[in-house]
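Task: sequence in, structure out. Protein: ABC transporter ATP-binding protein/permease.
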Amino acid sequence: MNPERETSWTPPADAGEQPRQVRRILGLFRPYRGRLAIVGLLVGASSLVSVATPFLLREILDVALPQGRTGLLSLLALGMIFSALLSSVFGVLQTLISTTVGQRVMHDLRTAVYGRLQRMSLAFFTRTRTGEVQSRIANDIGGMQATVTSTATSLVSNVTSVVATIVAMVALDWRLTVVSLLLLPVFVWISRRVGDERKRITTQRQKQMAAMAATVTESLSVSGILLGRTMGRSGSLTASFADESERLVDLEVRSNMAGRWRMAVITVVMAAMPAVIYWTAGLALRFGGPEVSLGTIVAFVSLQQGLFRPAVSLLATGVQIQTSLALFQRIFEYLDLPVDITEREQPVHLDRVKGEVRFEEVEFRYDGKGGPVLDGIDVTVPAGGSLAVVGPTGAGKSTLGYLVPRLYDVTGGRVTLDGIDVRDLDFDTLARAVGVVSQETYLFHATVADNLRFAKPDATDEELHAAARAAQIHDHIAALPDGYDTVVGERGHRFSGGEKQRLAIARTILRDPPVLILDEATSALDTRTEAAVQKAIDALSANRTTVTIAHRLSTVRDADQIVVLDAGRVVERGSHDELLELDGRYAALVRRDAQLEPVA
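Result:
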């Protein structure tokens, strides 16, 4: 098993992308600017209180202690204690507010990405691995948590602290301040280089995490386990996963070690700066320079030490932000995915749908490119009538059916419902009007009742039972130990194929759509199970417009109209008897089915 690494859409590169990306990130915080303003005030107040402590210390060393003024000493000491207390209170409050804002931004991002994906056409999901989608929402957004919850506040706090501390240092002695800040531009340059390196590695790491998540999702699903065990590939799947994990180990190590030595040099140099200040002050005094009091030197070194912590943190924050840009870029890629199936600005809403469906010179090409999958389809299904679509594999049968509920959009011609182009209808009308039952039945890992109520959340127990009876599945559910509270298992694997199909039919009966698309709903079932499911389908199809995509022709003999597709074009149409009399493609398909029919 060697799955493709990356199958998601990626936007074209743009030289001005990073500034635009930063603006978009800042825009995420715009709805919370009131709370952020409070955080800013708390940060400013905390910074001012912090820089006041060295000045109090200078007064203690230069005035209170030499002059023996115990009252002033007590007052200054209490001031230092009060400053520390006040700074701590401000810190707790700003952490509370900033964390709340950060989590709200995370929530907004997750919801925006999920909502965007819900709007994507079926084509997007057929070419994108499920694990890749899950990784974007879980790993990428999760990886940004530190940035959006604490980095923004840390940035504001550290900038404010650095500015306030530098101003205080200049007020104490501007010459010593110049000496302290000589190497700062070099440190900023180093941190930017480290940030760029980590950003590149983070992009690779997140792609690798997405690939590993896709491998897990595919191979550890119920279907994946069954396939791996029955094919004797469990060992090779484990080896493949180990290779994916090994690549991730290498990227994680590189990410954590990127620029570590350079940042360590910055830390050592900053830690050595107090000695440089003492040395500079001593030389100035020795060679007749301006005299600096002991209290000023101690206060200055205290400020300098207070500067180093936010300065180093600020440099590290810059690295973190650059690293996070890679994660934001991957999220913005999904938020910028082109949505090709959209609702009109003023869509048509129908309270009542009769159910007439028309395909008028319909053409369809995947992604609007390549050869036509459907070409010149012109078919009308009257309200309450039935159409069967048959033909060889790859003829475009399922695609034709999926155009009615707009799982795909036509690239030429139009599909109408009651004379209105389905592209002009609002999504709510389409969802109420068109029901789809496909061969690939999907059930959630929830109870039978929850799965049925997905179609109608307010359905009563009596409605559930009535729908299940119509679908020929009520007696089986009632015989289970937990009845309708039975958990169906991952993708419904506690039920057989025919039982899952009847549950899907019951779910559609609850929704009660006037138009029904049956996409090879019985093709994978044995003859006995097919008979039971067909009874359920007959109950479901009664008094509805029905489009049946058929593999087994025995299920479509009674259709009002049958069309035969080949290479995306209608090559025959008529009733069952008319097409048999024509002795063309349909008749050949019927004879093939008769030969394949199992002997009773």
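Residues 1-15 have pLDDT under 50 and may be disordered.
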